[in-house]
Automatic annotation (TrEMBL):
InterPro entries: T4/T6SS_DotU (IPR017732), T4/T6SS_DotU_sf (IPR038522). Keywords: Membrane, Transmembrane, Transmembrane helix. It comes from the Bacteria. Residues 54-228 form the Type IV / VI secretion system DotU domain. The chain crosses the membrane at residues 215-235. This is DotU family type IV/VI secretion system protein. Pfam families: DotU.
Amino acid sequence: MAASPGRFALGPKQAALRDQRVLVDAFCNFHADVVTQKRVVVASGGVMPHDAVQQRLLDAFEQQAGKIQSSLPEHERRLFEETRYVMIAMADEVFLHLDWFGKEYWADKPLESIVFQTRDSGDRFFNRIDDALNGRTPASSQLLTVYLTALALGFRGRYAPLGTGEPETYRARIVDFLARTDPEIVRGEDLCPQAHEHTATDTPQKRLPSLSRGILPFLVVILGWIVIGEILWLYRTAELDTVLDRIEDAT
């Protein structure tokens, strides 16, 4: 079938990349909404009603699910549901670590308790990574990439009060695992060649611990997904420099 006028037909590799990006793009789109709402709170001097912020995020959360879920095959719907859990965990952490009027109210009733009726995302986030990496649950490359993205954007969960480097260790473990189990993803030139054009090469970059030279291209791919995907519209927020610095430091 011919491509529609004004549109290009996707080649096999492009189609595969699109499929592999579904969960990551969903996460990044919702996180962009989170950052936008954080900007609104800051602009209000911290007095924006917490319930109004939560409702806006819940509306965006459910609208996204309505658009995506019906198009996913059955086995990917479970992965999408877990991705949604990571989205909510990330959103709660953002507003629980923001100095504003609604902080205590948010702690009393986080989004996690509203959507999933649980209150342990700070632990569960890392426990689920452990389960996947240790073979206790099936490991999805897409889902692990979502966790990797959240870590690159600063999620710390149970380690936030401790100030330890454990989140960085988890990030390195995920990269190493994916490089060994899904080598196609490691081939950055096949998956996302334009990522190299958006990665600084003339400044020193901090390497993750225990990463071999062969794993670095995969990390570049992940960072490229974050930078060149839908999360690019974060240019509209006041937090762009902070987010990009974190992503660049991950390399």
